[in-house]
Design a protein that fits this description.
Number of strands: 12
Distance between the termini: 77 Å
Helix content: 40-55%
Oligomer: single chain
Strand content: 5-15%
Structural class: alpha+beta
Largest sheet: 5 strands, antiparallel
CATH superfamily of one domain: Gamma-adaptin ear (GAE) domain
CATH architecture of one domain: Sandwich
Amino acid sequence: MRGYYNLKALIKAIRNCKTLADERVVIDRESAAIRESFREEDVLSRHASIEKLLYIFMLGYKAHFGQIECLKLVASPRFADKKLGYLGIMLLLDENTELLTMVTNSLKNDMNHANMYIVGLALCTFANISSEEMSRDLANEVEKLLGSSNVYIRRKAALCAFRIIRKVPDLIDHFAPRATSLLSDRNHGALLCGVTLVTEMCEVTDVADGFQKAVPLLVRHLKALTTTGYSPEHDVSGITDPFLQVKLLRLLRTLGRCDAESSESMHDLLAQVATNTEGTKNVGNAILYEAVLAILDTKVDTALRVMAINILGKFLRNKDNNIRYVALHTLNKVVYLDTPAVQRHRTIILDCLRDGDVSIRKRALELCYALIDDNTISTLVGELLTFLEVADTEFKLGITTQICLAADRFSTSRQWHLETVITVLQLAGNHVREDVLASFVRLVAHTPELRLYAAQRLFIALSKDLSQEALTLAGIWTLGEFGDILVEQKSNNVEDSQKVNAAMVVGLLESILLSPFNENSISQFLINASAKLCTRPLFRSEHARLLAVIAQHADSSSIESQQRAVEYTILLKSANSSIAAGVLEIMPAPDVKPATAVTAGRKQPSGRLIKGSEAGSNRFVQASDSANDPARLLEELFGLDVREPGTTTSNPSEEGKLSLQTTTPCVTDQPVAYEGHGLKVTVALTKSNASSETNILVTFLATTASGVQDINFQAAVPKTQKLQMLAIDKTDAYLGAPATQHLRVTCLPEAQIRLRLRIAFQSAGSSIREQVDFIPI
């Protein structure tokens, strides 16, 4: 039985099926016929059956029963059988298949075959499916073929070596001499494969020093490509072999990254490539981009670095969105290397905020955050506020956070700072973090001269719009604290403001009470503000209306609101009014410790150490005092303990207890365990001399404006120690808003704690994985 169809007939039958059920009938019938033909062990029909089976597999149906038959075809002396057999192996097997061990011997035999095309088939199959075990078994054969006199075999062997190094990095020493010889190959294809292999070697392990002597040779290769005339064999859009040029630039960047001598030897060539390469076509832009990366990642002078950044600025004016995205992405990485050079392109960067492509808007937004400093704060914040009005919902939370952080860090005056925050609350009050609202509270509380201005602005804003939650919360708090200042105002600090009396303020509170946007958090602020105004002499005439607002919540479905309403009512109706006045007086300004530098320096992806004076906005860190915590602010407002369930209060005198404070700790003096790719990880230990337990606080600090996302942290200790980990408080970290995780290690008091840390996170669109061994001092 040889099946109902040959391959062409099978394809036609399947295409003629009108329904999926009809197709399954044809496939099932033909699969049964193929199985039957395999049982007959007919050598002639096996080839045709495998052809049909692979087509069935590509349609998404099961074909695993043909794996052994593919191995039998590989053992055939006919080239056509071997070709089909290896194709079947690459499709039906992967590196995790147990049957793969049976392929190793066939690959070894064919790698030593006299026919170069059969050797090529074996090498191609190996490069696609080899496992770690197979890589170790066949490494010697691949190493020998790297020295073949046949350029066809050398190219394929180089790609197999590439696969081996990725699977088994400790086999690099086997291939280093052969890889070096490939760098001298005159054939463009072999040279391309050799450069790719050496680049992978340098990236997988730290062996770049062994290839430094090849830099002059690579420079000569690249120079020959850039100065040669028309070569029809390698010409692409008027440029000679752009693929090889890109690979050479990438390897030069890797070799010159940490070596001043190598960087010096390629300096003039990089300047020549950056100057003479035509950027009107995509192939030229690809070469220019690699040249820019090489310049920015090696030790070159400032003038050449400025030239590279100007090339990226030209990319921003390109009509191709892909090129513009690449330029923005790269500028985000290098903005701290030469901020003034990037500032020259601020206008076109701001234009990118209006681009129709959401990914370009996102990258431009991140770059704008990084460009904010003392000189650009007014311009850039104004642009960001304009963009906030039309921004997508997914952007608003990040924009409001960054604007408020920038205003706090670089504000020209406190009134400008306050006006900026109020504008943010008006435009995106439903997309504002709690710490922004807490920062507003601190600003108003610590600036008595702005209290009237804040009350006037917020009264006008709430009279027009009650839909923004954060704006409503800020307005209620301000009116509750400083409503009497607003009523007794002697001057109008805000344009178009009118004389406000107590009845108007209470009327606004009543409007908020009846608003469809009224939620539990707003109700709780409303109860508190009404209670406070009841004790103010200027609101004595509105006492009954204010009590009515409070009484509306006495039967609220929210237990919290109900409790507050009942307790405040009892307090305000007490015979001793001085008690209520004392309890509900103006909230004292929260204590704020001055913001200190995160570190004396930080590393950028390029490896250069940025001094604290250059770090710009990254020097900002939230104060460590508990007064800065929104939960603590609410506790002072309402006189209640509002810590999240499951948290405990820190008590340094209690040994063995893991502190879960909601406050952000000061990390200035904590040892740094890891720093790079926009993230710094600090580790702080608290250990009692008499206890075997050590509490450890790991803090994840973002050092770039775009922050880091999807933080995944793992830790391990020696077998003689015991580790307990709590969940990380959040998986994203931004400037001034770090993430934290608590650990507890149990060991002998005299033992040295040793930690192995694994950190995975997203930074600037890239996935980063790092492992470090850390011994706290």
